Description:
The protein is an alpha+beta fold. The chain has helices at residues 2-8, 16-39, 46-70, 77-93, 105-122, 126-152, 166-178, 210-218, and strands at 95-96, 102-103, 156-163, 182-190, 196-203, 223-228.
Amino acid sequence: xxxxxxxxxxxxxxxxxxxxxxxxxxxxxxxxxxxxxxxxxxxxxxxxxxxxxxxxxxxxxxxxxxxxxxxxxxxxxxxxxxxxxxxxxxxxxxxxxxxxxxxxxxxxxxxxxxxxxxxxxxxxxxxxxxxxxxxxxxxxxxxxxxxxxxxxxxxxxxxxxxxxxxxxxxxxxxxxxxxxxxxxxxxxxxxxxxxxxxxxxxxxxxxxxxxxxxxxxxxxxxxxxxxxx
Length: 229
């Protein structure tokens, strides 16, 4: 009896079974992405990703339900607004830090992709949703490791530092010249009183790692704060 009931259910139509299945799948897939973001202490975490994926999923199903019930209209009309609307949430995760470093772009892009995944689940594209959540998880985990590996071997480094006074700036530039580190970009501004904030981009000598470069700068004993950006 149960087998015949299961066979009679069309997983492509909007009914009680498919609604439940799609919403549960949206929670699982959105939660998987949100957990990875939460683990890295990002602004949008587990609950945000779950709700975005659920919202996109139910929006897609609502469009299908209206079209299926009234036998008229475009079932994707409501869903189209999700892609543009998610930009408001994504913009809230992007911020410019005091050292002119932009953070939150990956989180914003993840929310956008998460919403698109919710639409796919709501449309009943189960296989596509499972594939995309796997690819997205690989992108945010393995992609960050590849990026760190590549950047650590790049001969260009960008960092922000805070000097107590302008005299220390001369000492810093002298140390850079002594170790053959060339200034590519330079931005200075007074932070508090006589303190000077610097955003520097340096071209390092061949085979000099970022770690060694940061250690050399730190050992100059002229910086009150130093951070690679």
